[in-house]
Amino acid sequence: MLSVGALACQGSRHGYAARVHELAICSAIAQIVERTAAGRRVACVRVDIGHLRQVVPDALSHSWEMVVFATSLEGATLEIHDVPAVIECRACGERTELTEPVFRCTACGSAETDVLTGNEMLVTSVDVARPD
Ligand SMILES: [Zn+2]
User: Fold this and answer.
1) In the CATH hierarchy, which fold is given to the domain comprising 4-128?
2) Which pLDDT value is given to residue 132?
3) Distance (Å, whole) CA 98 – CA 54
4) Does residue 15 register a pLDDT over 90?
5) Residue 121 and residue 132: Cα distance in Å, rounded?
6) How far apart are CA 121 and CA 83, in angstroms?
7) Ligand 1: distance of its center to the CA of 40 in Å?
């Protein structure tokens, strides 16, 4: 398993540019976490990101480091849990995990579907570091 630091190094070597999309998501996450932490030092933040958010995990990790740099959250690691996109067919009830954003039932071909999961952007837990 790669640490966030390793991912960031790998990212810079390949010339990753942090994308605006990921930066915006990281800013939103940082605001929620800062409110929750209320001044305490944060060790780790876990987030659920739905597949339909079309987030690139490496770009998200890199953006996180940029967003928290020189803030009270600096040093906090971001753990990303990618939630699969699942739709349910209104016609036959079949559930399909989407591999691409085509909202069609694989059993009967109906386009009348409801999205069950995949739109998440949730901070699921925040680990606060013990005071030194
Ligand atoms: Zn169906």
Assistant:
1) hypothetical protein PF0899 fold (3.30.2320)
2) 66
3) 12
4) no
5) 32
6) 9
7) 49
**Residue 90 tokens, joined:** 């209104």
Domain boundaries, the chain: 4-128
pLDDT in tens, 55-75: 998 999 999 999 999 999 999
Contact 123, 46 (CB under 8 A): yes
- Alpha-carbon distance of 65 to 74, in angstroms, equals 8
Residue 114, beta-bridge partner list: 88
Cα 84 to ligand 1 centroid, rounded to whole Å: 19
Cα(99) to centroid(ligand 1), Å? 17
Instruction: Compute, in angstroms, the gap from residue 127 CA to the centroid of ligand 1.
Output: 42
Q: For residue 80, what are its two tokens? A: 């990303």
Q: What is the 112 CA–ligand 1 centroid distance (Å)?
A: 8
